[in-house]
């Protein structure tokens, strides 16, 4: 299974979400993480993770598009590969889009997000046309103010493009634990398993596992084996 966290817009929370998903899913499944972010956020957090005594993730870096495609083609059935794409448009990031079983796109509800999504929609359409396959992304609202309950503007924008966008039910609020936990190489759940951010992250993971039907398609890894 391949999951890409993708948006050409920078700073929306791709690496934060990719890292949290990777850490949590790697507790049950064999997970590979591909770091396409030029800032190498996940690679750096993974080093810190080791220094704080946690088992490191299996993070892979690719410079070459062909090597990346070969890896995705060979990736065995019982693995989950999570791709953290860069916040820009590139050939590698487009490969991640068409090769994935699920694309997740974090967006906030600020006005400029709509412009970012318009641009992303164009990219989705171009990639869909090129590979002859309809590509859709699942949008997760991220960095949302704790008191905000109405997401009407972004919801109605998303609804206008049902072939490219679908809104997830999970909402991740703007919470300081996300950056504090990352600075220790921890997921929000490892940092404080009872926090609101960890509850939201678990809800997102459950929603993803239902969409991809992990119960039917994924074997859990054996205890003690990475
Ligand atoms: N739910 C959240 N609550 C609070 N801060 C968050 C949340 N999600 C992400 N952030 C913060 O937003 C900033 C950008 O996040 P991140 O680096 O994950 O974005 P990105 O999309 O990967 O950026 P880029 O496109 O540059 O790779 C970071 O400082 C991160 O800690
Ligand atoms: Mg990033």
Provide a quick synopsis of the model.
The chain has 226 residues and is an alpha/beta fold. The protein has helices at 14-25, 41-51, 65-74, 91-99, 111-131, 152-159, 177-182, 188-191, 196-211, 214-217, and strands at 2-5, 30-35, 58-60, 79-84, 102-107, 137-144, 165-173.
The CATH topology is what? Rossmann fold
CATH architectural name: 3-Layer(aba) Sandwich
CATH class: Alpha Beta
Structural class: alpha/beta
Tell me the series of helices and strands, N- to C-terminal. EHEHEHEHEHEHEHHHH
Query: How helical, in percent, are the residues?
Result: 40-55%
Tell the overall outline. Answer: globular
Largest sheet, in brief, is: 7 strands, parallel
Task: Measure the end-to-end span.
Answer: 17 Å
β-strand percent reads 15-25%
Bound molecules: adenosine-5'-triphosphate, magnesium ion
Q: What is the residue-averaged pLDDT?
A: 94
Which radius of gyration do the C-alpha atoms yield? 17 Å
* Number of DSSP helical runs: 10
Side by side, the strands of the main sheet go: 3-2-4-1-5-6-7
CATH superfamily: P-loop containing nucleotide triphosphate hydrolases
- How many separate structural domains? 1
**Which consecutive residue ranges, at least 5 long each, have pLDDT under 50?**
none
Strand segment count: 7
Description:
The structure is a single chain. It contains ten helices and seven strands. 45% of the residues lie in helices and 19% in strands. It has a seven-stranded parallel sheet, with helices on both faces. The protein has a single domain, classed as 3-Layer(aba) Sandwich (Rossmann fold). Strand 6 (137-144), helix 6 (152-159) and strand 7 (165-173) form a beta-alpha-beta unit. Helix 3 (65-74) packs parallel to helix 4 (91-99). It has helices spanning 14-25, 41-51, 65-74, 91-99, 111-131, 152-159, 177-182, 188-191, 196-211, 214-217, and strands at 2-5, 30-35, 58-60, 79-84, 102-107, 137-144, 165-173. It is an alpha/beta fold and 226 residues long. The model has no long low-confidence stretch (mean pLDDT 94).
